[in-house]
Write a structure and sequence with these properties.
13 helices; 342 residues; alpha/beta; globular; binds 2'-deoxy-thymidine-beta-L-rhamnose; 5-stranded parallel sheet; 35% helix; 17% strand; single chain; 12 strands
Length: 342
Amino acid sequence: MVWDLFCRVVDNFGDVGVCWRLAAGLAARGESVRLWIDDASALTWMAPRGTEGVQPLLWADAEHAEPADTVIEAFGCDPPSAFIARMARRTAAPVWINLEYLSAEAYVERSHGLQSPQFSGPGAGLNKWFFYPGFNARTGGLLRGTSAPPCPEHWLAQHGWARQAQEQVVVLFCYDTTALPDLLQQLAAQPTLLLAAPGPAQQALSQIRPPTGVRTIALPWLAQTEFDQLLHCTDLNLVRGEDSFVQAQWPGVPFIWQLYPQADGAHAAKLEAFLDRFLSLTEFVDGPALRQAWRAWNGLGAWPERLPPRAAWQQAATAWRDSLRRQPDLITQLQSFVAERR
Ligand code: TRH
């Protein structure tokens, strides 16, 4: 089956990251994907070799294309109106889905799977379905990488990131933050190898001297499959936005999430909603310290005196991962959702 997937890059790499992961995941299950994207530049490092079954195409060229059986717009990105008009003219209307942003808030369960009949505009007569990713069976589930097994032996060393004796390995992928010195102080309680992603993480590190015991390496942009693998080879992952946050939940390794900051402060409620779920499911006794650390990392409070003890935190991350594995992943759910509506 052919899927049309529309992706508009607003900023950063989450739009392209989610769309590429979805497209590659569908292709890995035998689907054919036309990825209509307005700025494919990040794909040069994120997916340098592409993948069979996914065809990246210029957004503007969709104006003249014939719609396929399924049309997905990521994050309400509004496909070109000429394309939507052609969808409405098709004898069998395509299944049209809006893939929404991820949140653990309660509205997601209420909104997942709702339809929005189109009464006016180029798509009049069509139905658009809302598909919400999420953390339980009443949502559309989560995207998983197509590869990334547990860390292969010597993987870090092969990349030049070998850990030295006693070192913990920490990935740092973040936005601008004033909380970095506090984080580094906490990490320095143990010898640490900090692997910093390009962008704000490396810029911030270039302006401070890390405390004794913290060794830093600046990473290049990695292909998405390599980045996924890296998250499985570490002791702690600091991730951001949407897609790296989801992928940091699969290894069963402690993670700290920096949310995409929203001017109206909506990210604060999003953070609490996720932690409420995580802490209640895992019954993590050091929940208050974890919550305080996450809030602090997001500029929403002061650092706790210490990070949660690593063994218990690790156990909680694994329990959480196991619970997520018990629900069908997003692509499985999307395929059934579409099949039921065709
Ligand atoms: O880049 P982001 O901050 O994206 C953001 C958020 O998604 C935010 O919610 C959204 O509103 C905004 O974009 C538009 O973080 P995110 O979501 O983790 O996306 C990063 C992608 O980059 C993810 O797919 C992982 C990938 N990546 C690599 O492939 N290689 C790398 O080396 C790194 C660091 C990331």
